[in-house]
Structure formats: C-alpha cells, structure tokens
Amino acid sequence: MRRYLPVARQHFLAALAGTSVVVKSLSAAALLLYLLSFGVDTAYGLGVTPGYLLPPNFWVWTLLTHGLVEQRAWGLAASLATLGAAGRLLEPLWGALELLVFFAVVNVSVGLLAALAYFLTYVASFHLAYLFAVRIHGGLGFLGGVLVALKQTMGDSTVLKVPQVRMKAVPMLLLLLLALLRLAALVESNVLASYGFGLLSSWVYLRFYQRHSRGRGDMSDHFAFATFFPEILQPVVGLVANLVHGILVKVKVCRKTVKRYDVGAPSSITISLPGTDPQDAERRRQLALKALNERLKRVEDQSAWPSMEDDEEEVTVKAESPLTPAAGKSSSQESNLITFQDAPSQL
Which residue intervals are annotated with compositional bias (Polar residues) in the record (predicted)? Predict the structure, then answer.
C-alpha cells in the first residue's frame, strides 16, 4: 500500500485535473462525506431508507444525496473512479451540464425504484426491516449508468484481451458477479439493487429521453435491450422487450420508433433513424458514390476500343477537311485522297 498508494493518488489527481467543475465538485463531496462517516452516520441522514420516503416523513432529499454516501474505502475508490471515467469519456461528448443531469436522473431513479422494490417485499413478507433497516447508498448505481453509456458510445472496444471481453458485455458481467456474491452472502442486497436499477434507469433515459443534436434518445439496433444479453437469449428477450415497450407506448410512458425522411438532402432522399449520426450516414453515402464512379470508369475504359465505323468517320473527316487543294498539289493526288476515302467501303 505504501508503494502503490502515492502512484494511484498521482494518477487520480492527473485524471481529475482535466475534468470540469461538475466532476471535481461531486468527487470532493463524496470524499467529504466519507470523512464525515467516521463520526456521523451519513447513511442514515443522507441515504435512502424506504420507509422514510413514505408519509409522514418524506425524506426526498436523500434521492439526490445517496449516490455520494460511502462508508467503506473500496466504495469510495469505486465512486471516485466512476466519476473520473465519466469526466474523461462522457463529458467531452455530452458536456458538463448533461453529465450532471445524467447523474441526477440515475440516482433519483435508483432511489425510487429500490425503495419501491423493498416496499413490495415488505408487502409480501410484512417484515418492517425492509422499510426501516435498509440503507440504499453508494455510487454503484451511477457506475451501472456509466457502463451503459460506455456501451452506447464504445461498445466494440476491447476491455480485456485474455479472455477477450468487449465493453458491451461488461454491464451484464458485473451484474452476474454481484448476483453471485449476493448468493454467497458476501454483499448486501442494497448493493445488487443499486447497481441493477442503475443499469435499467440509465438505459431507459439514454434510449428514450436524452436530448442531443440529433433529436431525443437512441433507437439504434446496437443499443436495444436484448443486446445486453448473450446472443442465444436475445430473440426471447427481444420479444418480451417489444411487448413491454408496446404496453408502455399505449400508456404514453415511452414513444414509438419514428423514421425521419430528409427530402431536402442535396443529392438524393436519405432515410435516417433517431439516434444515428448524419455525418456517418453522409460518409457512407460518399463512399458508395465513389465506389460507383470507379466501377463506371472501369466500364468506360473497357468500351473505349476503336471500331471500324469510328475509323471510317475519322478518315472521311481528314479527307474532306481541305476546302481547296493546296498549292502544287496535282489532281492525281486529290483523286488518290478520294480513292483512299472510299477504300474502307470497298473493303
């Protein structure tokens, strides 16, 4: 620890130096609350307790603060690393304000969904511990949201070479690991609930509601809900997801997938889906046009061989171009030119 802690501190400070005020403020708040946890039960006052969200308490501020509350060193390290990764990889694409909105949306959704899940568990079991003994806190919910966002932006990137693991598989692999640790009673249920609801809420927000220059949401095929699962399960998961989406569309929670037709394009009619990049579509169109022009040029080169008819017309033009014979030219030479002009027809 004495050897590697200064190096880790140096790398963290270097990564944090290139981020915005939003990431620095959130990191400082998480560090401050961790230091306060040695003397104060921060998870009680700032973490989400399902029973205290209900009337007459209404501790609604905990929905915003629970994501910054850490009471263990490994939890603080994970939260700071998550904030640093979001600042370096997502903030340049979204901007500081959108990153802050994403942080707030994910944490509020995790608090509400986890509290609802524990309330339903209490209804099924009538154990008050599910309402008042559970503390939902920590940055694992936001970690799940960042992993989903990285799957959206750089899903084909390789995270591990041996064994080969791509970024698009990391969210579900970590969920599976946490589920196994929960079955072995090595982590508490609120850890698994925070991360799982962080995955779900971030995907819903990025899929349907996030605003950007191309419209709202990302309806591309590579970001469908079924792509989070192995390929053998994707048809079944896709069918269930489509049924759920259809129900949510009818109750006006989600919106339909809308195709946009750009009839004002300069060259031809282009069809684009919400969430696709127009620049990428234009690049593919230019490559297709270039390939088509090269094929047409090769066809023209192959058909450029001279024919007998072209030779006959060329000789005729050369023979008839002089309006009068040149000085010193005999009539026999003129007759030879005429005879040579008629030669191809005689052949």
Answer: 329-347
What stretch of H or E contains 248? helix 234-250
Cα–Cα distance measured from residue 291 to residue 285, given in angstroms and rounded to the nearest whole number:
10
- What is the residue type of 111? G
CA distance 28 to 30: 5
| 344: enclosing H helix or E strand | helix 331-346
Nearest to 142 by CA among 108, 188, 174: 108
pLDDT per residue, tens digit, the chain (347 aa), is 567 667 766 766 676 677 789 999 999 999 999 999 999 999 999 999 999 998 888 999 999 999 999 999 999 999 999 998 999 899 999 999 999 999 999 999 999 999 999 999 999 998 999 999 999 999 999 999 999 999 999 888 888 887 888 899 999 999 999 999 999 999 999 999 999 999 999 999 999 889 887 788 888 888 999 999 988 988 999 899 888 888 888 887 776 766 554 445 444 444 444 444 554 555 566 667 777 777 777 776 666 555 544 444 444 444 444 444 444 444 444 444 444 444 444 43
Do residues 48 and 136 touch, judged by C-beta distance below 8 A? yes
Question: What span, in angstroms and rounded, lies between the C-alpha atoms of 215 and 209?
Answer: 9
**CA dist., res. 129 & res. 197, Å (int):** 21
**CA-atom Rg of the chain in angstroms:** 35
Fold for the domain defined by 4-223: Rhomboid-like fold (1.20.1540)
Residue 282 Cα to chain centre, angstroms: 19
- pTM summary value: 0.72
Instruction: Please choose, from the candidates 140, 157, 164, the residue with its C-alpha nearest in 3D space to the C-alpha of residue 222.
Output: 157
Indicate the domain borders of the chain: 4-223, 270-302, 308-346
Tokens found for residue 212: 């950007």
- The answer to whether 41 and 1 are in contact (CB under 8 A) is no
